Amino acid sequence: MGQQPNIELEIADLPRPSPKPDPARAWTPGRPGELGGPEDAQFGAGFGTVGPDSGYALSLVKARELELADGERRANTDIALAAVASARAARFGRAPMGKDVDLAIALLGLDPAAPEATRRDMGELRKRWFAAVAHHPGRLHGFIASLDPGVLALTAEDVLTRTAEGKTLINH
Questions:
Q1: Helix, strand or coil for residue 82?
Q2: 50 near 110, Cβ under 8 Å?
Q3: Which of 96, 58, 90, 95 has its CA nearest to residue 77?
Q4: CA-to-CA separations, 169 to 129, 141, 152, in angstroms, rounded
Q5: Does residue 87 lie in a domain region?
Q6: Cα four-point dihedral sign 159, 160, 161, 164
Q7: Which among 95, 9, 14 is positioned nearest to 59, based on CA atoms?
């Protein structure tokens, strides 16, 4: 529409462009469960220690050849191994790596270098401990919480040596 000739427009009356998109508004966490910072994280029994990229442990475990006990399901064993490897990695504040999976394999009696009796006995225990673990995650959480933090600091070779000497490393 044209300007009426009897009205004088000042510079302030002219249309001004507005920024697109609008400037960002301030945001603070407001939903339950959101953490505002590291000081908001809860620690202690039942919370565990969260480590970066824990899901990568499952990829590392699936790449391994495992000799399972009769009646043992690979999916349950994979989840248990990944949880132990992730717990060990989180203890050191890093993402899981091959050495963590090596420890988990040795600790749960899946290492071919372990004595035959240990592998057989641990196979029976694994079937009981990790049966339908995907449907009952509390069972796995309880198992991980029951592990001695000192055991998670060992190497796979140390675990094999101690189990060959007849020492019990898992009190579950």
A1: helix
A2: no
A3: 58
A4: 15, 17, 10
A5: yes
A6: positive
A7: 95
Say which amino acid occupies 126. R
pTM of the entire predicted model: 0.72
Strands (E), the chain: none
Q: Cα–Cα distances in Å, from 96 out to 76, 85, 93, 100?
A: 19, 6, 9, 6
Task: For residue 112, tell me if it sits in a domain.
Answer: yes
| Angstrom distance (rounded) from CA 160 to CA 166 | 10
Reading phi first (left if > 0) and then psi (alpha if -120 to 50, else beta), residue 154 is in: beta
100 in a domain, yes or no? yes
Domain for residue 4, yes or no? no
Q: Using pLDDT thresholds of 50, 70 and 90, give the confidence band for residue 140.
A: confident
Tens digits of residue pLDDT in 41-77: 666 666 666 778 888 999 999 999 999 888 889 999 9
